[in-house]
Amino acid sequence: MSEKLVLDSFALVSLFHRESGWERVQAALYDQDKAQTRALLNWINWGEFYYIVKRRVGMTKAAEALRLLEQLPIELHPMDHPLVRAAAEVKSEYAVSYADAFCIATAQRANGTVLTNDPEFRAVEHLIRIRWLSKR
Questions:
Q1: Which pTM does this prediction carry?
Q2: Residues 6+ apart with CB under 8 A from 78
Q3: Which SS3 state, helix, strand or coil, does residue 42 take?
Q4: What does residue 129 show for φ and ψ, rounded to 5 degrees?
Q5: What does the alpha-carbon distance between residue 97 and residue 100 come to, in Å, rounded to a whole number?
Q6: Domain boundaries, the chain
Q7: Between the N and C ends of the chain, which has fewer C-beta atoms within 10 Å?
Q8: pLDDT attached to residue 134
Q9: Per-residue pLDDT tens digits for 40-91
């Protein structure tokens, strides 16, 4: 069984814009598909991905990116009160963005591994497993 991956917007932006590490994101999603599993993406990080892409390339390309995202082996993880509280707890204790706090809380809930290269996650390496997009 493959590991449960949790995606942050950094990984998805890397994939869609073919930035450093995009091949590792592609390979990880291929492995998820091959194992007939799905990576997790919560709605907050979905929104973060959308606004970043829209700011960079405009609404038409951002809408296209969302259509492509729907075709990937990704499950959108719902928000609920316990997840929001867990994210708020993370944010209150660590120097991470609020969206990253949701990714961390999602990984904790799912006992998953975050796929990222966002340096903010260094502050929480002791809380969750992280698969870095580039060698560290």
A1: 0.93
A2: 42, 43
A3: strand
A4: -85, 140
A5: 5
A6: 5-132
A7: N
A8: 86
A9: 999 999 999 999 999 999 999 999 999 999 999 999 999 999 999 999 999 9
